[in-house]
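Budget justification, computational time. The allocation requested in the original proposal was used primarily to generate structure tokens for proteins on the priority list. As evidence of use, we reproduce two of the resulting records. The first is shown immediately below.
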Amino acid sequence: MTSGPETTSGPETKQSYAVVGAGAVGGFYGARLTEAGHRVHFLFRGDFAHAKQEGLVVESPLGDVHLGPGELLAYGDPRDLPPCDVVLVATKALVPNPAADLLASMLGPGTEHTTVVTLQNGLGIEEALAPVVGSRTLLGGLCFLCSNKIGPAHVRHLDYGLISLGQHGPTGAAQGVTPPMEQLAADLRGAGIPVALEDDLVAARWKKLIWNAPFNSLSVLLDALPQELLALPEARALVAAVMAEVQAGAAAQGRHIPDAAAQTSMDLTRHMAPYRTSMKLDHDHRRPMEVEAIIGNPIRAAAAHGVDLPVMTTIYRQLCFVDARNQGRLPTLDPA
């Protein structure tokens, strides 16, 4: 990015967007913003050649979108993207976070007023990217979205779509509702995407973990859909135990999550379309899983305040083994 942010001309000036990671999350939200008249630049990785030739397809109950090759603004190199008003980061939250290097290539001269929005799962996300973002506005977006990437540049949206937005502060303190949050929310709502504005981003991330921590992790370890985890009393008790530890971790950081939030998460899960979680999809395709962001970081955050999360710690150790085996990091042994 080497010049001032571009805007989309029209009756009203619309913000321009860059989507870093045009998969299940970035592809869906980027396509909706494009349909709403925003100029959206998509950064693809492995799918770039296919996207340039065939475009981007998003199937959705809200209406299918096909951005053909003549309409889709696709890029394979982050250095080629123009400066934009907003950068949506929708890559996986791995260790190290791949978005850090991508943003470092994008946030050059002309991006001083660019807003960066992380749409990644887990805890400690903004802290990992803040050194690269620098003095620019850094927002966090928590997506309650059932959406899968089913092929190259091909996304299937199944249900929901809410984004909860909060602003990151250097000390982690609540920042309240800010003008950049309100401006982004207006764009998203104009694209048919529901938005909730959060006073406290850290509290919102802990609240999202009420769903993410149990259902992502246990869907891998028990080879189950989220609804199946609630169908058996023993599995449901395990889900509830993880939720209770998320509440304890949040409390250790001075954030209160009411018991009603856990019950609401279970109720929403019972009624959502059958859906494999993002961690389960990564496991099944032998991709690295977001173990640290979703499980490890919350454990460490609680431990820093003297609070132990024993159930989540056991789950964390199991996931570390499963992930290591999936990634070929275990020794090859021949049984007798």
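The second record produced under the same allocation is shown here.
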Amino acid sequence: MILTIIIFLLVLSVLVFVHELGHFWTARKLGVKAEEFGFGFPPRLAGIYKNKEGKWKCVKGGKDVKDALDTVYSINWIPLGGFVKIKGQDGECKDDHDSFANHPIWQRFLILFAGVGMNFILAGFLFSIGFMIGFPQSSDNLNPKAQISEQKIQIMQVMPDSPADSAGLQRGDIIIDINEKKFSNEQELKDFVNIRAGEELNYNIKRLNTEMTVKIIPEIREETGVGGIGVSMFSSVLVKYPWHIAIWEGIKITIFLTWAITIAIFDLFKNLITGHGLGADIAGPVGIAALTGQVARMGFIYLLQFSAMLSINLAILNFLPFPALDGGRVLFLIIEKIKGAPVKQELESICHYIGFTLLMLLVLVVTFKDIFKYKNHFKILLEKIVG
């Protein structure tokens, strides 16, 4: 559990840091001053900056820096991602040439979009690296130049209180054979197990670098009348491409997943509006942390794949036209363009404050839902801490 938290924080930190780096780099290129660029979140531990005389200086703690010629580069106490403080983003210093508020709408849009743009680029990069190393995926509709190896059937989910759960099977386990019989796909395996409900079967399992044999008796599920052990599986092959094709495949899957995730988010909000509530598969920070740990146990390449998908999710969610998000700020730029004048800063600030409050409430609701779902994991962690 502790390792899961560490891996989750590392992954999230990279995604957030890259996002903020996009804002920072674009602002600098367009002549907007970035007052501070920090690793982690405040309070500030220490920082360095160049003063107005052109000399580098250090600053300790969170005191104001008034003699900075340019950006203060800081390390902060909360080691989670990073942040960038852009001059004039909240409407102040409108008359200064290096203020965000004093730049054309198209430049302000680019600065706001740069964060999510970097997350899309990161996702494409991670997918491309994965295809160079070898990504596990379905063998259907592959590029003819794909190099295929290591066909396997892997457990993706274990149902609570199922025969598989009682036997100790875990997400990420690879089924080598059952009763010494090997299978070419998951359907062949399911058919084999279905007709042997009630019989004790020997599952030869590979977990990380360890092989083990587990005895499981399949049960007939009342709702389907089909025999099984209570797992969902994925039949995959390891797909590898030459570097130039891997880059193109990485771009293609990023575009495809962006569209698919956008549709899924649209359906989520449609369900909320129509009163269907949050689905059981919606995860907040706690749920994502748990998923990160499960994926990490499946192997590095799966963690790489999952991180790329998280990066796309972060980009899409952050660009929704909702106050307090980058997309919300873009919405105010669109209103400014239409009416020919910016929205009053007081009104925009109130909207962002309300939006932020609503987002935090949503996060709290989903987090409590996740905590209830993973309460046994927290109980184990607490027992380890208390001793």
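A brief technical remark on that second record: Residues 244 and 268 are 37 Å apart (CA to CA).
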